[in-house]
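Researcher: First entry.
Model:
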Amino acid sequence: LHLMLECNNTHLQRQKLIRLSFSLKFFCSTCFVFFIKSKENVANNCYSAAYLLKQCKYYAISLRIFAAMSYTILQVRKGKEQSIFRKHPWIFSGALFTDTKEIEDGEIVEVQDYKGRFLALGHFQNATIAVRILSFEEDKIDKAFFQKKIRQALDARIKIGLLSKENTIFRVCHGEGDGLPGLVIDFYNGVAVVQCHSIGMHRSLPEISSALQKAFGKDLIAIYSKSADTLPKRLETADAYIFGSCETPHEALENGVKYKIDWVLGQKTGFFIDQRDNRLLLGNYSKGKKVLAEG
């Protein structure tokens, strides 16, 4: 049992754990009755019975651990697993076989094929896109998971030079491209603006905030959550700082040019970062020229 609890939480191992736990319960219960009824060597029998009761306690604990490790299971219809094999990060509601009426929006679910085989883990939402896949492996979706994903995303940006003395504006996380569907994070000279496009990501804000603080360290001034307009209206939420604070507009650099960013009043996360190359191109064309004639 100890070895089973130490091993990775795979579907096969969880099934073995269940069978092992129930076998242990049956064994302990049977032996307990046998020892109590036996009239020989009462002291040893009582000791053995107490020991077996202790094993039953371990059994109960093991089931609690198992329950904590597992997620609600959703099965897809036969043939609908093919897109998941191709690593498509979305599962549409029509592909699901399982009744989802009792599943909460934002809940982490385990997706299985029609035979009960593991496919993926993701955030469930009662919408056309029913599951946004977080992992195609049997991971544990916790603080460490988000720390790893955001660290990888940040390292990729640093590697291509998006964070430098001349550039303090860039997108840290771009949803599916970074393995975190439904999550956008933009960085403006010490301030991370987070925008959630799924209830699951919104429920994961504490883990996301912790991951950003660990990744940026002292370079992070504040984290602003701006998701009121991107989440379903049934989820009442407001834009607000979830870590630190910063006055707006806030100065940040893009290719050496200063911009004043206002994520509170500005559209989306406050700035159209995807137009970086166009702004640079326009700057090269207009260098040394007068754009507007003097009046």
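Researcher: Second entry.
Model:
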Amino acid sequence: QMLNVFEQLCTATDAAAGVDTLTLLVLYFEYRELTPSDEKGNAILQDVINKLISMSMYPRAIEMLNQLVQYRLKDPIAKARAGLQLAEVHAANKTFAAGLAALDSTVTSQILPKDLYDARLLMRARLQVEDEKYDAALITLQNVTTKAADYLRADIAWQRNNLPEVVRVLRRYFPLPPATTPAPATAPTAADTQAPAANSPVWGVPDQLAFLQLAFAFAGTKAPQDLQALTSAYASQTNTLGLTEALDFLTYSAGGKVAVADTATSPWQRTVLSLQQATRLEQQLRAAAQADLF
């Protein structure tokens, strides 16, 4: 009877249990000796780990994931999946070398499901980027054709100030009208179907960051027509993000012509402030994207 109550509490949501997550965690650690040694016990541990992560209690989550990987999981695929989560938590905890070690220790000769295989490679590349091992990260990503992998490739180019490469990688995800400079010919990949829709009112954080990087890259490579087309094609999103004036200023700086509203407030002062806002937003989005991905 006690074991059933323990199991129900450990795997319950806050609403179902009638108490908050922290209380559920306290109850688990008070009675954790009741954790079964079978698959049901592994499921309880995994649920507790997820609760710890949701509370940003990363060191304790790492401790429990290590226990799960080293002593409980026997199936190589389950161990590889847990190793990926362990690497993700290490990334969130800023212990990047330990994250790479977690991936190394859960390598298996068994064929992994493609999504798990790609996710482990992507995580390895992210950790290598955090260690500024950009060439190693690009090698890791060689056979990964997802949008997330392309966004990471573009971010590597961005950090290296290789703006033409940023444009080459990202513009397929933000298609421009045919009148603008055609994108370099590349073989279609699975990532092509993952582009954010032009008429979608909301983008995820990685899409917002990629859009800003592409806009700045167009400005940096003196491509005002492309930048104007980008601003026009995605006007709804740029208005939502409050970036219209900043993009106009970028277009002007790249040699394009933009109409400046005649107001009592200095339009250039407003656009400079807006550009500063765009830069701050890029930094905030980068941090948010890392938190979301890790």
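Model: Note on the second entry: Confidence is low (pLDDT under 50) at residues 260-272.
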